Amino acid sequence: MRAAAALLLAAGVLCLVGGRAASASPDFDYPAAFNFGDSNSDTGGRIAAGFEPMPPPYGSTFFGAPSGRFSDGRLILDFLMDAMDMPFLNAYLDSLGAPNFRAGVNFAQAGCSITPASATSVSPFSFGLQIKQFFAFKEKVTRLLSQGDRYRRYIPQLDYFSKGLYMFDIGQNDLAGQFYSRTEDQVIASIPTILSEFETGLKALYDQGARKFWIHNTGPLGCLPQNIDLFGKDPTQLDELHCVAKHNRAAKIFNLQLHALCTKLRGQFSGANITYVDIYSIKYALIGNYSRYDLKVPPKHAVDTEGHP
């Protein structure tokens, strides 16, 4: 799996916005990583915030117990950190067990959206709030470093904020949540507003010194078990992999506009490196060729013993 993560890193570089050729041996020597996202990369933030506990089988295949991740093992983020020879990122809100933030911090929260949370949101956290948490984290690190060496081994050095990798995997909840009450056309019409909010956050980070951006597009939402269970009753509404077609169409349009945004920002962010990673294609290929990866059933069919996704 470490090799697979390294391959994903290399693939991401080949997706570098703007079409410039990547070097044969790209440099992934980052002193720290700062992650923003939802359940795809939450390493304990939602649990630390006081939400419901996560019983087994969460965490059972790697950590031996629930680890705050919405997975029975590691997340893509964990494999990426491992491939870069960096420790797994601790959640920003997790203050138990003397967490070490020297190599970065994870602001991701399961259920989080790019747009501000509303009364009906799954989580009160949003991308904008994660950005504010980053500002608070950086300000506190600056203050602690000014007080001497006592905390230096637990927190990033100041130059890590400009040299570090800023990672993003967020947006699926903005799309998927709307399908419960809106039409496909209405969901698609909301995408520019969603990405405008995302752009605002990226610009705020750039203004704070961020220069290396690693941005995942959204995956095939129509292949998520919960969406197939709720929206996949009519076979005519499914695609060739038996995923919900309208969800995947919306995801593809979101990704096209996200790619265009990355291209635009690459021209505006002087000295920045923006890497756009096509997670959609990677996951869709995995689902379509699951047997090659020693999976007994397609990932979209993964459910618990009671038939719930």
Automatic annotation (TrEMBL):
InterPro entries: GDSL (IPR001087), SGNH_hydro_sf (IPR036514), SGNH_plant_lipase-like (IPR035669). One of its GO terms (molecular function) is hydrolase activity, acting on ester bonds. Keywords: Glycoprotein, Hydrolase, Signal. This is GDSL esterase/lipase. It comes from the Eukaryota. Coiled coil: none annotated. It holds the Pfam family Lipase_GDSL. PANTHER family: OS05G0401000 PROTEIN, ZINC FINGER FYVE DOMAIN CONTAINING PROTEIN. The lineage of its organism: Eukaryota, Viridiplantae, Streptophyta, Embryophyta, Tracheophyta. Belongs to the 'GDSL' lipolytic enzyme family. Residues 1-24 form the signal peptide. It comes from Triticum turgidum subsp. durum (Durum wheat).
